[in-house]
Amino acid sequence: QVQLVESGGGLVQPGGSLTLSCAASGSIFHIVAMGWYRQAPGPQRELVAAVTDGSTDYGDSVKGRFTISRDTAKNTITLQMNSLKAEDTGVYYCHGRIYTSFNQYNDHWGQGTQVTVSA
Predict the structure, then answer these.
(1) What is the DSSP string of 17-37?
(2) What number of helices (H) and strands (E) belong to the chain?
(3) Model confidence over 38-77: pLDDT tens digits?
(4) How far apart are CA 16 and CA 8, in angstroms?
(5) Checking DSSP bridges between strand 113-117 and strand 10-12, what pairing results, if any?
(6) Which residues pair with 12 in a beta bridge?
(7) What is the SS3 assignment for 86?
(8) What is the three-class DSSP state of 31?
(9) Backbone φ and ψ of 63, nearest 5°
């Protein structure tokens, strides 16, 4: 079993900053990638930012404003969100592609945390 536990989120004014964190725990053999996706009202979940062993990837709408970092020793990631806009509002989900043995991996999701950007 693998668990992803998120923290952070909340209400912030436009132009403000927030920090999200996610910690992976459980039967972890190797973490391929961890990242954040968000879901505005509607069915589609979009990539915000992700980090693998050697690289980071960002959604076009957040480039230059958000920064993702990873603590490999602690199996955690942090998303620093600056210059927030109303369109950043949504539920942010932590994702992890995690091996639980040398030949088996699965995609895991956190429970989601609400980010609301509003005056």
Answers:
(1) -EEEEEEEEES-SEEEEEEEE
(2) 0, 11
(3) 999 878 899 999 999 879 999 999 999 999 999 999 999 9
(4) 14
(5) parallel
(6) 117
(7) helix
(8) strand
(9) -60, 135
Tokens representing 99 are 């091996």
At position 65, the amino acid (one-letter code) is R
Condensed to tens digits (0 to 9), the pLDDT of residues 72-94 reads: 999 999 999 999 999 999 999 99
For residues 13 and 117, the answer to whether their CB atoms sit within 8 Å is yes
Buried b (16+ CB within 10 A) or exposed e, 13-30: eeeeebebbbbbeeeeee
- CA nearest to 84, candidates 36, 19, 15: 15
**Nearest CA among 40, 36, 46, 19 for reference residue 89:** 40
Phi first, then psi, for residue 60 (nearest 5°) are -60, -35
Q: Which two tokens stand for residue 54?
A: 């050697």
Q: One-letter amino acid identity for 93?
A: Y
